Amino acid sequence: MKKTRAAAIVFLMLMGCACLLAGYLAPASYAEQFREIPNASCSRQHWLGTDDLGRDRLSRVLYGTRVSLLLAPAAALLTTLLAGVIGGAAGFLGGWLEEAVKAAIDLVLSMPWLFLLITVRALLPLNVPPLTSVTITFALLGCLGWAGAARVVDADAKALAHSEMALLARASGSGGMRLLWRHILPNLKPVLQAQFWVSIPVFILAEANLSLLGLGVAEPLPSWGSLLRELENYSALTAQPVQWIPLALLVLTVGSFQLALNREEDWA
Amino acid sequence: MNLRVRLAALLIPLAALSAFGQPGSQLRFCIRTDPKTLNPLMVIDDAGQTVRYLTGGVLLRLNRKTQQLEPALATAWKVSSNGRTITFTLRANVYFSDGTPFSAGDVAYTMERLMDPALHSPVGDSFRAGADKVRAQMLGKNKIAITFPAAIVGLDKLFDQVAILSATSPRKEMAALGPYYLSENKPGAYILLRRNPNYWKHDAAGRALPYIESIRLDIQQNREIEMLRLMRGEIQFINSLDADNYDVVKARAPEMAVDAGVGLDSEQIWFNQVASAPIAAYEKAWFTSTRFRQAISESINRADLARIVYRGHAQPAASWISPANKVWFDRHLPPYRYDPNGALALLEQEGFRLKNGRLRDRAGHVVEFSVMTNAGNRSRERMAAMIQQDLARIGVKLNVVTLDFPSLIERITRTFNYEACLLGFVNDDLDPDAQMTVWLSSAENHQWNPSQKTPATAWEAEIDRLMRLQASTLDVRKRKQAVDRVQEIVREQEPFIYLVNKEALAAVSPQVRNADPVALQPQVYWNIDTLWMGSGGGKR
Amino acid sequence: MRGMAGHALRIVLVVVLGGFAGAALARYAPGWGVDDEDLNSSLSAASHAALHASDANGSNPAAFYVDYWGRLLRGDLGTSVALHEPVSQLLKERVPETCKSVGAGLALAWTMGLGLALLSLLPVARFAAWGAWLLASLVLCLPAAVLALLCVYAHASGRLAIGLIVFPRVYQFTRNLLARSAALPHVLTARAKGAGECRILLRHVLPVAAPQILALGGVSVCMALAACVPVEALCDLPGIGQLAWRAALSRDLTLLVNLTMIMTVVTLAANSGMDLLGGLIGEGRG
């Protein structure tokens, strides 16, 4: 297990270095179009070949990693924190607060948020820089994704608040915030961790879908999400296998994060 | 006639005869959405047009291959010298799918319904030529004259779109005179059409047409899944295939791939020239400058767009009329130039300067603007990315924005909150008169500056004059001269910067015999009544 | 009794609020009241105006909503502007398809998710745990469109895609919940006393995690319904997911309000049901 964990950490460090040093490692600009060789297969000049406009795929993967690896975990953290605070407080305190939070969760889960995102796009100027637009996108995703997890956290916090462990803590004089901070929140960690890991790829993919609404990463800036969209056509499923590399990287990165940060006993 | 053609002429009906009488033969293909309406007079969308083409009986049919009108329910027709009246001699002994007899009364009824101002029939709009009512005068059981309040150019061709309704059938619009009738409609899933047993047309051997027993139109929005289904043999053809998938078909099943040559549709980019648009004044000054538009046009490498985005299955555009339109395309127009240096020279004449790789106008504003296009259209997204790089060569920063279609339409038709737009126009009418609402400065679809009270520029006033002239004369030579001049003005002023004309690509299973896809819609099934289904492979 | 009344009041309030918020979001989003045919150059100005004749109905969402409820109380769900069909008819045609899709998807997701999560707790099934983790991570990272396309490619139903979309979430949450429950002192004590793994799982681990798993059950219904939108739209399954996608694209206010309220009712029903069940289990254990 230790070896696997070490391998995961090494992989993540490599990914971190690759995205920080993308400017040095990338063989070409992510936007440069080598128009004589669109859809080229792997070669010495283009290790991962070129995309349909002749752009070096390796460079796009490196720069795309930088965007997605910084912003998606940030949004996942935001949504997990919101789920933890709202769900945790509701489950712990109970009463009318829990009822109100549950009603809010039900409402949030059933809303057509697509229209809010479209409206936000309308409020932004069309010439907004791609990085600003994508940061806003991830922030919105982070703010809207908490409801599902909050419901599970609420149930969990409620169970913990009534558990023998909590009764024991209360009996020994821990109450209120101390009980919440020392006993309840640490025990919510597994659920919150699951939410965090689940959210990262979900947000990366959601960003790609939102680029359809003008809210994602705009051309020519790449992101893993926009690179994954290449897979959505029939020719991609049958043609160059290198088109699957962004997917492989995403799976490996999310998996490595889980391996690197989870305690060993979690995998028992 | 050489031996091969004679042999084919002999074999095709023979093979058809052998196919005929095989009950259960079914042709399957996909449409994108449910038709918005099944009333043939109210059809407005592609899916509705498909159903209308397959079920509607028309007086005259435009042969999509020869681009000439052919008799259908009318055996003969004559347009009066003033262009206001058309007289039809109708085919005798014709019956609707439910057995109701067809007569001149049905044509009169159809025209009355079609021109009912309360109905707002999109087909009827093509016939509106004045405030007075349209008169249909029955000159006997099988003869009818229809008189319009004013002359209509290309009057006879418009009847290709008019499906004749029964005035007396209890099934109303569902009684069909076309080769098929609507048998089943499962919204969101499929539409089933069955062979009309009373269809009037017969083949050379006297057999009743059509040969194919039924047609199933599967509602399939996703084109990739449509491709998979074609490859698995679940559907028999795909109309309007995109270039990527055409190449996949060509590689995997070359016998299925059909390139019918350049089509009628166009792809273009335009700048917002609306005076009240909520964009900066200096940007408006750029966009209303002819030289600026010409320079942008010259810096776009159309050959690369055709070669890379459309994988060579497109041609650089030359005009607002496609070269596929044999009659109206102006063949004297020179091709667009790709000349970034020439573009910079034009911009310099207009006061722009290239400094440190960035273009600035006379007042020092950096030239940066956005182009929006509809989300999900891969070809347009790629074209925008390529134009972005082309313009970077002359120091222009282009921001590409993809928006969902309603948001985009709102911006170009209501709020005018945009700088440039990249879209394509679908064109299924050969006559340029159909594009009056695009070219008249007062029209709503005059996209770069719609609904003008008076023309904003002298060249728009001239286009107005020429388009009205071509609409008011029946002299084809005069019309052609006027339309050619409009093409020249548009070419010079570039309100629309035309990019490419796509080729009409299709994939047709070898099971579908006698298929002869063409560039005009409906491409593969334009000769539906003579298509037949073979078993397995073979030649089309 | 008072609690029940309060609960009912909450449900009604959430449904009413949900419908109104849905209407307001759609109404004030860009693109409301426009039609694809606005760009159709063959239409006259009068026909363009006729296309927008019904727009006035929704220009004020509050007035629209009051009117909508008036009609709803008389049993009329209104008519879809985009599809020109009564909403009740559209729902009648499409709800069964979505019920089948959601049912099949949830059954698959829970069988796989819970099954693999339980398996991953067994020390003898370490490789199975790795396999399950890899599968869940892989499926989670695949775009819904690719999953749907792969299902079609493999001659599988789109329902499989719904199951696969929900599965990793179920797996990740339940695995972590069960792992935590398995580390509780009473479980360790039971193990020290020599209780069998299956007995420990069924008697000591699952009952502790049951309320949270049931809460996840409620949430998974919402997840499956949400997954229906892209999957039905891509696989062309004629269900309410496909309908919702079309309603969103055409800004069909009447249809959207109905669908939002259905979503709210289903969400409330699933979550309340699971809460109730969780409460009963909790009482049973207490």
Structural class of chain A: mainly alpha
H/E element string of chain C? HHHHHHHHHHH
Fraction of residues in helix of chain C: over 70%
Shape of chain C: elongated
Structural class of chain C: mainly alpha
Oligomer: heterotrimer
Number of domains of chain C: 1
Radius of gyration of chain A: 22 Å
Described by the principal axes of the CA atoms, the overall outline of chain A is elongated
The biggest chain-chain interface is: A-C, 57 and 66 residues
End-to-end Cα distance of chain C, whole Å, is 22 Å
CATH class call of chain C: Mainly Alpha
**Mean of all residue-level pLDDT scores of chain C:** 84
Sequence stretches where pLDDT stays below 50 over 5 or more residues of chain A: 264-268
Kindly report how far apart the N and C termini of chain A lie.
10 Å
Structure write-up:
The complex is a heterotrimer of chains A (268), B (540) and C (286). Chain A is mainly alpha-helical and 268 residues long. Chain A has twelve helices and no strands. Chain A is elongated, with a radius of gyration of 22 Å. Chain B has 540 residues and is α+β, with helices and mostly antiparallel strands. Chain B has helices spanning 3-19, 46-55, 104-114, 122-125, 155-158, 223-231, 243-252, 281-287, 290-298, 302-309, 340-349, 378-392, 405-415, 436-439, 458-472, 476-493, and strands spanning 26-31, 60-63, 68-71, 74-79, 85-90, 135-138, 143-147, 180-186, 190-195, 214-219, 237-238, 257-262, 266-271, 314-316, 353-355, 358-360, 368-374, 397-403, 420-425, 496-508, 512-513, 532-533. In chain B, strands 11, 12, 13, 14, 17, 18, 19 and 20 form an eight-stranded mixed beta sheet that branches. In chain B, a hairpin with a 4-residue loop joins β6 and β7. Chain B is globular. Chain B starts with a helix and ends in a 7-residue tail after the last strand. Chain C is mostly helical and 286 residues long. Chain C has one domain (2-285): MetI-like fold, CATH 1.10.3720. Helices cover 78% and strands 0% of the residues of chain C. The longest helix of chain C is centred in the last third of the chain and has 39 residues, at 197-235. Chains A and C meet through α4, α5, α7, α9 and α12 of A and α1, α5, α6, α7 and α9 of C.
